[in-house]
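Below is a filled-in request sheet from our internal design queue. Each sheet records the structural input a requester submitted and the sequence that came back. We keep these sheets so that new team members can see what a complete request looks like end to end.

REQUESTER: design group, bay 2
PRIORITY: normal
MODE: inverse folding
CHAIN LENGTH: 514
BACKBONE (tokenized):
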């Protein structure tokens, strides 16, 4: 066989390998090792942590629910002269030592299980947008239960989203209890990935667990594989507890739900404007949330979600994007990781209203900073728009590709004898004078490079000949294709019958079983 024939046969074999599903390792799968970006010095991290301990020991927490105060005092907390609940540094450090440092996040389908903690970085959704960017009009309208279901279905198809948290509020379900139940139903019907939701009141938790049990095979199934985490905001900044979140936490922990305790203070409004002071306060508040969970059930899994938010101090309005929020959330991840806790932060909360260059700049900056800092769970990373007021299907599709690029960046550059390529360079110099088509190049092509599906790399001429489409248009066409494809049914008819006989479900069967 000639050398030309051998090269042709090699290319054919590699082409066949690329066509074989699962044969090639993805060059940038979720779960890359982060931590290379460190916006805080080691001393800065320690100073912030020390100040957080001091805040809890000397200023303490106000508006403590009576049941929590009783638990805390029995567990070693004290009251200061102003009647505020105080935690000594030694007590907080002991609770941190008892907190799980890694634990699984389950999907209904075990193929979607992930282990969170350590240095692994995963991206997923979050938020509670009240508006949806309508694909047909390009304008915002009130978000609906159907939207939530469609977002869940779309997230299920996005390979770089590791979980789906309720991204929008079904504003067409006015009853609070029915809203919580129907939100859970949309999650169950839409995806088998790990999911997350919040509850307005504690009395909706147990009924919601019955929906999961019905979908997962019967009573007690959820507790064995808790595939939904509960999102609570247990702190009212500055340094006060919220009673409703405490009630929800008690009920959720009874059913073995992982707790995502979100602290969302706003700089210059409910927390100090200087970034270091803000991080000191929010770290203390997230520690206080951990103390609450510990007193309910020691060692229960909790995601240490320190989400420092930013207020535009010129207007007082919330700002979801910018350099400050990017560096704050990266710093929050760095602090949580220094404490050894499972970290959660927020990113990609674009202030942009349209799927445009502003959106891309804002999302890319904050999501990459959080990933490089080593946050274990990065929320709001897909689909969020308009400073958390809106959600977009097209943005979710584009964000999915952005997250692949992020994971590739986080992965970094591996230096080995193979990747240094001395032998390949020698062969090219004394041989054909280039690296095209060689095994060294082809192996790197499959291993080291990510090839976007949506980003356009054509020449201007080809781009014009194929319609001169912008990213929003391409994402819209992709959305239409995905929504037209046959869908998996994640909820059996028997389970659906049981759920609908027990509760008022507003999403029609025709939508779920089309």
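RETURNED SEQUENCE:
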């Amino acid at each position: 066989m000639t050398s030309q024939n051998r090269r042709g046969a090699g290319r054919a074999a590699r082409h066949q390998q690329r066509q074989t599903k699962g044969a090639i390792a993805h060059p940038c799968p979720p779960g890359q090792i982060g931590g290379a970006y460190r916006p805080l010095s080691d001393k800065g991290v320690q100073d912030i942590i020390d100040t957080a301990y001091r805040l809890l020991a000397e200023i303490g927490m106000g508006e403590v629910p009576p049941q929590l105060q009783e638990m805390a005092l029995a567990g070693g907390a004290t009251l200061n002269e102003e009647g505020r609940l105080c935690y000594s540094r030694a007590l907080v450090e002991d609770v941190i030592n008892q907190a799980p440092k890694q634990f699984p996040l389950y999907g209904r389908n075990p193929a979607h299980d992930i282990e969170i903690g350590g240095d692994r970085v995963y991206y997923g959704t979050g938020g509670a947008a009240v508006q949806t960017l309508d694909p047909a009009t390009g304008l915002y309208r009130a978000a609906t239960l159907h939207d939530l279901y469609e977002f869940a279905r779309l997230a299920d198809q996005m390979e770089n989203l590791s979980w789906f948290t309720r991204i929008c509020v079904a504003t067409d379900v006015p009853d609070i209890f029915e809203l919580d139940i129907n939100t859970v139903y949309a999650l169950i019907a839409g995806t088998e990935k790990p999911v997350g939701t919040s509850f307005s009141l504690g009395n909706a938790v147990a009924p919601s667990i019955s929906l999961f049990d019905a979908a997962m095979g019967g009573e007690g199934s959820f507790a064995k594989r808790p595939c939904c985490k509960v999102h609570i905001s247990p702190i009212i900044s500055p340094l006060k507890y919220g009673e409703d979140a405490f009630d929800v936490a008690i009920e959720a922990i009874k059913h073995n739900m992982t707790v995502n305790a979100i602290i969302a203070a706003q700089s210059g409004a409910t927390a100090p404007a200087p970034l270091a002071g803000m991080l000191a306060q929010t770290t203390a508040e997230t520690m206080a949330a951990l103390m609450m969970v510990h007193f309910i059930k020691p060692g229960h899994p909790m995601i240490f979600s320190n989400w420092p938010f930013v207020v535009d101090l010129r207007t007082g309005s919330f700002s979801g994007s910018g350099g400050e929020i990017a560096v704050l959330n990266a710093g929050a991840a760095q602090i949580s990781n220094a404490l050894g806790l499972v970290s959660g932060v927020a990113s990609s909360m674009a202030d942009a209203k349209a799927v445009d260059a502003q959106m891309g700049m804002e999302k890319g900056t904050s999501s990459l900073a959080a990933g490089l800092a080593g946050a274990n769970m990065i929320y709001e990373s897909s689909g969020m728009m308009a400073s958390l007021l809106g959600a977009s299907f097209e943005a979710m599709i584009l964000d999915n590709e952005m997250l692949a690029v992020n994971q590739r960046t986080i992965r970094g550059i591996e230096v080995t004898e193979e990747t240094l390529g001395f032998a390949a360079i020698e062969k090219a110099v004394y041989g054909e004078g280039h690296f095209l088509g060689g095994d060294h190049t082809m192996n790197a092509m499959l291993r080291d490079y990510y090839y976007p599906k949506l980003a356009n790399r054509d020449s201007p001429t080809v781009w014009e000949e194929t319609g001169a489409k912008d990213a929003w248009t391409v994402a819209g066409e992709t959305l239409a294709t995905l929504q037209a494809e046959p869908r998996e049914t994640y909820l059996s008819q028997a389970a659906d019958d049981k759920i609908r006989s027990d509760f008022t479900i507003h999403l029609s069967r025709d939508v779920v079983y089309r």
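SHEET NOTES:
- The longest helix spans residues 275-296.
- The chain has 20 helices and 22 strands.
FILED BY: M.R.
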